[in-house]
């Protein structure tokens, strides 16, 4: 088993990470969670130039404004969209790194558990005292964990 990651995150660093996430949330109290039933027209990078040009034309041609504050509010929304798009990219990169690192750590921990379980089964097969109780306890937990992998064989 190759150990690709070996990290101990101190309690203080863990606290700082959660504080930083909380700080981000409190800095942007306007963030929303929409239900799936909400239907919105969506802007993407392809539509952004269209929106920019519409707002530009309306800022110089009052007869294009269906409402009084549409340019002001549209500009604010466009700036927020652009800012959040940049934040989303940064957070997505961070989330991918967190996910991949979590997967690696979990895989290595699971592999360690499997190796210990195999050793316990081996010990049971050679009649090491107390091994049967350990194998039974681990076997129950192993079965509860799912069926993504066959029970480890004694080597």
Write structural notes for this entry.
- With 155 residues, the chain is mostly helical.
- It contains four helices and no strands.
- The mean pLDDT is 93.
The shape, in one word, is elongated
Average pLDDT, all residues: 93
Low-confidence region ranges = none
Major pleated sheet: none
Helix- and strand-based class? Answer: mainly alpha
Structure summary, number of beta strands: 0
Number of helices: 4
What is the rounded distance between the termini?
A: 15 Å
Radius of gyration: 28 Å
Strand proportion, as a percent range, falls in under 5%
Question: Which percent range fits the helix content?
Answer: 55-70%
Task: Give the helices and strands as they follow along the chain.
Answer: HHHH
